[in-house]
Structure formats: C-alpha cells, structure tokens
Amino acid sequence: MNNIEILEVSFDKIKSYIQQNDDTNMPVIKFKTPSELKKLIDFPIGDKAVSQNEFLELIDQYLTYSVKTGNKQFLNQLYSGFNFPAFIGEVFTVLANTSMYTYEVAPVATMIESEMIDLMNRYTGYSAGDGTFVSGGSNANLVAMFSARNSLLPEIRFNGYDAGQNLVAFVNEHAHYSFETAANILGLGSKNVRKVKADEFGRIIPSELEKEITNSLNRNEIPFFVVATCATTLLGAYDPIDEMSEICRKFKVWLHADGSFGGSLILSKKHRHLMRGIEKTDSFAWNPHKLMNIPLICSVLLVKKNGTLQHNITDINADYIFHDSDQIEDLGKKSIQCGRRVDAVKLWFAWKYFGLEGYQKRIDNLIDMAMYAEQKVNGHSQLELVASRQSFSVCFRYIPKSESNLNAFNLGLREALRKAEKSIVNYGFIGKTLTIRLVTTNGELSHTDIDLFFNNLLTEASLLEK
Question: If residue 439 lies in a helix (H) or strand (E), which one and from where to where?
C-alpha cells in the first residue's frame, strides 16, 4: 500500500467520523481510564517503523477514544461543533504548509489574513485599526498587555522594566487567569493584577473600578491596563464597556476587551448591545475558534490604531527575512512570533461559505439555545438555576429528593453523565455552590439536542437517587 492508497483509506475514515457527529446514537466519548488506554494503544515510539496496517489502526484508535467535540452532546468547553468549510480550509492550509512572516512565502495567505483583520476591525468599530492572528486568547491578552506597557513607557523596550515603576492592571474578579500569567511573563508580577469586585450577575462594577484606580494612584502606583471581559468563563457575563471606557479616558489608561469567549457576539445585530462601547477600547481579543466553531487554534488580537503592534512590540530591522519587495508589508513585522501558522485561511473559507448573514444567524442561534436550556431548567421541579443566565452559559443544579450534600451529588451526576458516554458538560463553583455549567457554543445546536441532554441528565440523576 503506497501513500496515496493510505490517504484514500484515511479519507474514508474522515467521512465516517464526520457522519458520526450527526448521529445521536453515537457516544460523545468512549470513556477509558489512563491505565486502560495504555493497554489499548501502543504509545511508546519503537526503534523500527510500524507497518502500514498498524499505522491505520493507530488512526482508528485515536479517533475512537478521543472526545468527539463535534458531537452535539459535547457541551463541556467554550468551543465545540464541526465546521465543514473551516475543516476544508485547515486541510489545505496544512497541505500548502507555509508560514505567515512574509508575502514572499505566503502571498495568498497574506492577502487573506489582511482581509480578515480588516473585516473584524470593521465589526469592532476600529476605523483605522490593525491586528494579527495569535496562538490563542491567552496569547492575545499577553500581547495586549505587552503593547499597553510599552505604549506608556516606550523606553522599556530597550532598558527593561524597573519594578520601581509600579505598573498595575485591573480586571474583573472573575476574569481569566491569563492576565496574571501575562503579568508574570512581562515582569510586572501577578500580584499587580488587581481584581475588581463584580455585581451579582458577574459584571465588573464601574464605581469599584474607579475606586481601585484612585487608591492605586494614592499609593504612587501607575495604573496602565484595564480589562473588560466579554463573557466570563463560568457565567458568560459581559462587563459594561461603555462605562469603563469613560473611567479609562479620565485616567488615561489602556482599555482592553477580552472577547476570548464571547467576542463573536459582535456579529449579532440582536445581541451585540452586550458589547456596547467596544469601539472605545484600545484592543480586543477575539477567538473565532470559540463561538464561530473554527478548528483550534484561531485567535485574533485587534488594536485601535494602525501601526501600534509594530511600534510598541517589534520595531526591529531584520532585512534577512523582511524585504518589502512586493509592494505590501510583511505581516511578520507586527507579530511576536516569527514562524506562525496560517490560521486565517480556515476562517476565510468558513466566512465565505456561510456569508455574513449566515454567521449572524449561527451566533443568534447560540443565544436562542441557551434561552431554551434556561427554560428547561425553570420548567423542571428538580432543576434549579444557580445564577441568572447572561449569555451562552446556563448554570444550574439538580435537587435530589433526599440527598443533603448537593455539591457532592451534582459532581457525581456530572461524572456519571460523562462516564455513561452520553453527554459531557462542565462544572464550577459560584461562591461555595457547585454548579453544572452548560454552554451553547455549537452553531448547529437545535431544541432536539438540548432536549436530549436534559433527558440524559435526568436519567442519570434518577439512577443516582435510587
């Protein structure tokens, strides 16, 4: 069997896998413990090559025992779903196998990425904006903080950061941990990321933000970076950007919008009011691999002013790679990466396939499905909302008839559901209360899929109560 024949067999496996995503009878996972997987799959690399049949068997095993994130009962993470045109884009991106640093080696991809950045800036309201694709939302948040720091204190690029400069950042108390990591990487120290009190819905309280900034100034610190979270990880809460922008303008502080989870809501005419004021921010992290169902990784950092990234972050002369000989600026000049995957192409294929209106409908459907799931919870006597639904997340728990330890029961219920291979959903804590978190992130979800999830959950709950 030659490589072409192996490829043909592999394509048959791909077709079968895609079909299984739409089969409600297929398990979302064939659950195995680590020790069981070690017995089933030959993980170690041997001195000699495996046979072609063994190679094909490894492909089968990988697909068989991996979580099927395209299955509509995968409601666990902030990404899910199978996006056919984006998958095709990914395949051909890998086939072409180039990098994004210069037009010379990636002419079509350079034009595509530039078009995607322009389109996303138009949605954001950055009329003279810029941006780059990065390796995830955490990286986008890091680069935004990096740019804000160097914008305020440009000499840091050459002289390094002095802890005596006392730079501090401010985030929602429910913000993603990546900002503390970014502060650590940049030498600012994670303790200088101050967590601002949120309201009962998980949204940052503007008056608390202003108070924290004022207190910081009184301590002779330098507030330089404020984050508005566009959908918190657990509650899906959107911070009030409009009010935060007024505070940041007053104190001349960089305002970054972290839309790593919920940034794609900007595509919806019906619901984008949750991001009112986004055009007043200085930067915006947007992950199409979340709500737009683009295969991982597909993340973008947008900035309000063109030239910001190159001036604040790179600003280097590397004529051994950047020649500027084709009447277009090489994209590598504004990235902290040199070698960089071509992630824009799969987004372009998907957006071309669905169109602007098609993607708007997909995003609206996600909210509709979350609202429907909320109704299912409210309509059942033994289900209880733990927090008000804000967007795509529905946080709830099951109330057993006799069990007193609700946290333990609901954790057991979640695990039973996962190991029964029927549905996968996540959990977290709101205060001391454990909540099951259902997220509607698959653009092709329907009422039938939500009904099936609750049927599966209630069946497992009944078994646990016996």
Answer: strand 433-439
Where the chain has pLDDT below 70, the residues are 314-326
Query: The whole model's pTM is what?
Result: 0.93
Ordered strands of the 222-229 beta sheet: 130-134, 299-303, 283-286, 254-259, 222-229, 167-172, 193-196
- Quote the longest CA-to-CA distance of the chain: 74
Residues in the chain: 466
Pairing of strands 283-286, 254-259: parallel
Specify whether the CB–CB gap between 153 and 317 falls below 8 A. no
Q: How far, in Å, CA of 349 to CA of 9, rounded? A: 25
Residue 137: Cβ-neighbour burial (10 angstroms; 0-12, 13-18, 19+): buried
For residue 195, the surrounding DSSP H or E stretch is strand 193-196
Distance CA 196, CA 177 (A): 14
- Which pLDDT score, from 0 to 100, does residue 287 have? 97
Rounded to 10 degrees, the C-alpha dihedral 24/26/32/34 comes to -80
Burial (0-12, 13-18, 19+ Cβ within 10 Å), 328: middle
pLDDT at 314: 66
Please enumerate in sequence order all residues whose Cβ is within 8 A of that of 421, keeping only pairs 6 or more positions apart, or say none: 27, 28, 29, 30, 31
Predicted local confidence at residue 323, as pLDDT = 61
Beta strands in 243-351, from DSSP E residues, in sequence order: 254-259, 283-286, 299-303
pLDDT at 330: 80
Per-residue model confidence (pLDDT) at position 321: 63
Bridge pairing between strands 424-430 and 74-75: parallel
Residue pair 267/320 in contact (Cβ under 8 Å)? The answer is no
The sign of the torsion formed by the CA atoms of 29, 34, 38, 44 equals positive
Instruction: Identify the CA nearest to 331 among candidates 167, 179, 181, 132.
Output: 132
- Distance (Å, whole) CA 126 – CA 219: 34
Are 259 and 266 spatial neighbours (Cβ–Cβ below 8 Å)? yes
How do 193-196 and 167-172 pair as beta strands?
A: parallel
Residue 322 confidence (pLDDT): 63
DSSP alpha helices (H): ranges in 227-383? 241-251, 308-309, 344-378
